[in-house]
User: What shape does this take?
Amino acid sequence: MVNTNIGINLTLKDMFSSPLRELNSKSKVAFGNMEVGVKKVGLSFKSFFTDIKNGSLSMANGIASSSKSIDESLMRVTARSSVLKKEIKDIEKEFSNLERQKLNLEQEFKSGKISAEQYKNSLKEIAEKQHMLSNKKLYFSSELKSATTQAHNLNSELNRTSNIISNTKSFFGNNSGKMLGVGASSVGVSGLVGKRTMIDFMEAETANARLENTLMNKSGKIEKYHKPILDKAKQLGADLTGTTADFINMAAIMRGNNVSSKTILNGGLESTAKMAILTRMNYEEAAVRGSKIKSTMNLSDKDYIHLTNDLQKMTYMGADPSQLSYAYTKIGANALSAG
Assistant: This one.
């Protein structure tokens, strides 16, 4: 009995003895390590999903930026399509007018108001105009078809990127919208790009169609200088006061007044534009007068640029811009009357 009691007492006592306390401590360490391990795994998963989120949002940000670029391209193509449709409509209207002229000529010939020779020559002239109009219509119709295809492709791409952005925002919550820097109506023609930009595109495309008309030969082919002239106009639009459309229109006027495309590219457009700024003359008027001065006085590209540069130097030396404008206008007026 004594031994048993002693044994039991020893056992209860030894529950708190040093060896057992050590075992208990080790078990706590083991469980503690498991707890730390679980926490670390949790943190790893949290970090993992955070990386996924940040990566997805970063990708979506890139897509949002791309969407803006696509949207601008879509607006540009939309503006191009609108202008091309108007050009085709104007061509058809002009063609119909020529048809009416043919009927009037026939009546005048039958009534004896014009001779057979006059009738023949007039019909030939009308036929040449109609042939050129037909070639123009073919060119602009082909361009319209191309623009329509581009618009369809851009719309599809815009819808695809819009869905990616929308899905990313839905998955990661509303805060991702702020991180993406886009709103609910961030895509589409009325979203990313403002009304002012659309107007700029329309003006530029209208000017471009005007330029194309002046660069088109009788067979409906556009001169190879078309793109370089557009690039030059864009550069001037960035460097000088005015828009790209202003300088495309200037180039169209100069080309329409028999200034060669090479002259336009070899400094003629830029020097005339700077002259317009210094003399406070509007760009189109400066283009007309500059063209007439060059052609009537038979100036080489180099001499014409020297003339405009000399007038600019006079401004820097203190000459009154209004007096230079008067001088430039008088020279141009004499050239216009001579032309």
